[in-house]
Write a structure and sequence with these properties.
The chain is of the alpha+beta class. The protein has helices at residues 58-61, 115-120, 137-149, 152-163, 192-202, 226-231, 273-278, 303-306, 356-367; strands at 11-19, 25-27, 32-40, 47-54, 71-78, 86-102, 105-114, 125-129, 173-174, 185-190, 212-217, 220-225, 241-243, 264-270, 283-290, 295-302, 328-332, 370-377, 387-392, 410-422, 426-434. Strands 1, 2, 3, 4, 5, 6, 7, 13, 14, 18, 19, 20 and 21 form a 13-stranded mixed β-sheet that branches. Strands 9-12-11 form a three-stranded mixed β-sheet. Helix 3 (137-149) packs antiparallel against helix 5 (192-202).
Length: 440
């Protein structure tokens, strides 16, 4: 961290405003005790929550009432000159947990969601995509994103606020992972997010599991492959997050003011053999039905045969096994119809490989073999989809110089992220997953 980073959790909060329905900006910093911005790798939009202590009748004084649709503007960052501020706009969804504390004082929480959420929540898509020759899933997702999510209406809103000095830092859609093959489909009155989730299931890329995700971070929206995220280098660059028990006396990272020390750890999951055996980590059988040919094909997936092809956070294999029929997938397929003398004249585009389902299930179980929640000093550079390196000292020894705990240390993937800013402190709470330890 730079010299202006004074203490762990040091931050700069440039602006926290609510713009009412009349367009008037209101500084709500004096009222807000705490705000949290939440990201989730498996959800499409970010959310914000503000804890308000109100002795001024603010909720009633807002033009037309605080009833949803107002705009929240926030600009903040970790106090590091090398980092740029995070500047975001959210739309108020509503007020909850309203409590009268004393005469003339009440507390409540204001909930907000990314503007794009309200732009598409009541929309439906009834449209064909792919044309006569088909398009890549990546291209179809981009088309839906441009027409329904980050469309001209939303861009005009952002442009207006930019002229008012409230520019946002997020951009459009990042689709660095290109899907393979061509696809034609008709979206039958799906919500845009439902349509994208359908395409995530249909899409296949060069990663063996092809687990595709659509999510939002401070940088913008992302359509990425889980396996490709796992392969990326840990952040922040050349840094590791360290955890020592409170009794461990160390001066390590004193020069960095403990910016990468873990404050708390909560272990949600450390392997679950029953779940692994019954939910498809180790094996599964797929029965692919061809109703036109009145035929079927049975394929058995085994983790031990595929695991070496997985993109891994840490390099080892989860021990165990299960019966081939622990999970049975029943699917329809037109595999081979494009070369069949009878069906080729229909010019069918082969549906995605139905055998991807057991691989995807197994891969997700592999990556989430260990789940932890860690609290670190606030770091506005961290987002879901990032990987980080965490080092734990052995639980049974506080002696300096001892090797790390080989089972809990390693490379982790951030799946949930909560940036929590109070009057005096900024923390980042991360839910992270990993597969195996650093040693067998």
């Amino acid at each position: 961290m730079s010299e202006n980073y004074r203490f762990p959790g040091d931050f700069s909060l440039e602006s926290l405003e609510l713009i009412d329905k009349a367009g008037a900006p209101i500084n709500i910093l004096p009222l807000v005790l705490e705000f949290s911005i939440l990201q989730d790798l498996f959800q499409p939009f970010m959310r914000i929550e503000l804890a308000v202590n109100d002795s001024a009748g603010f909720a009633s004084a807002v033009s037309k009432g605080l009833s949803g649709g107002e705009i929240i503007y926030v600009s903040f960052k970790t106090s590091d000159s090398e980092l740029k501020p995070v500047k975001m706009l959210f739309s108020v969804n509503g007020v909850k947990d309203r409590v009268r504390n004393t005469t003339g004082n009440e507390s409540y929480n204001i909930e907000g969601v990314s503007l794009e959420h309200f732009n598409i929540i009541d929309k439906k898509i009834s449209k064909a995509y792919g044309g006569s020759s088909g398009k890549k899933i990546t291209e179809i997702v981009q088309a839906i994103f441009d027409e329904f999510i980050m469309n001209e209406d939303i861009k005009s809103v952002y442009s207006f606020f930019k002229k008012e000095g409230k520019e946002i830092t997020k951009t459009g859609l990042e689709t660095t992972d290109t899907t393979t093959g061509l696809h034609k489909c008709v979206i039958p009155r799906y919500n845009p997010i439902e349509a994208i989730r359908y395409l995530c299931e249909e899409g296949v890329d060069t990663d063996v599991a092809s687990k595709l995700l659509f999510y939002e971070t401070f940088k913008g929206f992302h359509f990425r492959s889980l396996g490709k995220l796992v392969e990326e280098e840990p952040k922040p660059k050349d840094e590791e997050f360290l955890y020592h028990p409170s009794a461990y006396d160390t001066t390590a990272y004193e020069g960095g003011k403990n910016a990468f020390f873990i404050k708390t750890v909560d272990r949600l999951k450390e392997s679950d053999l029953t779940n692994q055996m019954t939910d498809g980590l180790f094996s599964a059988t797929t029965i692919a039905l061809d109703p036109l040919r009145k035929d079927f094909n049975t394929t058995v997936y085994r983790y031990k045969d595929e695991v070496e092809r997985f993109s891994k956070l840490n390099k080892f294999v989860i021990p165990g096994g299960a019966d081939d029929n622990s999970i049975v997938h029943l699917k329809t397929s037109r595999k081979g119809h494009d070369t069949d003398a009878v069906f080729a004249k229909e010019n069918p585009l082969q549906k995605r490989d139905v055998l991807k389902d057991p691989i995807r299930d197994s891969y997700l179980k592999h990556l989430t073999n260990n789940v932890i929640i860690v609290t670190v000093p606030g770091n506005s550079e961290l987002n879901v989809g990032d990987t980080i390196t965490i080092r734990f000292t052995p639980a049974t020894s506080f002696e300096e110089g001892k090797e790390e705990d080989k089972y809990t240390s390693g490379k982790y993937l951030i799946t949930k992220c909560r940036h929590v800013v109070t009057k005096r402190m900024y923390d980042t709470v991360l839910e992270c997953v990993k597969d195996t330890g650093t040693e067998e």
